[in-house]
Amino acid sequence: MDIQIIPAGGNLPIDRAIALSMTIKSFKGRRDVEVHLFRHAWDPEEEEAMDWDRLLSAPDMSEAEEAAGSRRVVLEALTVEERDSIVGYLKEHYAGRLSSITSAPIPFPVPVGLMALSDMSEGKTVGFIHFERIPHFNLGIALRGFYDLGQHPPMVETEASSS
Q1: pTM, whole model, 2 decimals?
Q2: Dist CA 163 CA 148 (whole Å)
Q3: For the segment 46-74, what is each residue's pLDDT rounded down to a tens digit?
Q4: What distance in Å separates the CA atoms of residue 114 and residue 71, rounded to the nearest whole number?
Q5: Which of left, alpha, beta for 26 (phi over 0: left; psi -120 to 50: alpha)?
């Protein structure tokens, strides 16, 4: 399993600034499925304590409705400590099923108008891994994984697609 931890190019404006993804070798009949890991819940006090004018690319819009998704993108991010705990957990429980784990800091300032992963809806090919449903997941992080099966090749090609 390849683990790639991309360090920040400088000082990050906040501790909660790390994006994390994993690639599952085979998942729901698809090959090499990329799963974006994120926090799906947080303390409202944490959101209130953030200096949004400093974190978003349009400071005068930090309280605007258009900035809500961008604010959630930041709140979904992980701290270095949370990332390290999750990477350790994944290595211990899923090393044989994963081909890679990748981590990088999110870029600041965050553009206004983004859609957060927690705002996505499950559908035919889009879904979430609910880590709180896994009995041995006990890291104390409200963790979910977002995937889109439509972006990944099927494990077995059908005759219709090979004709």
Answers
A1: 0.91
A2: 25
A3: 999 999 999 999 878 888 899 999 999 99
A4: 9
A5: beta
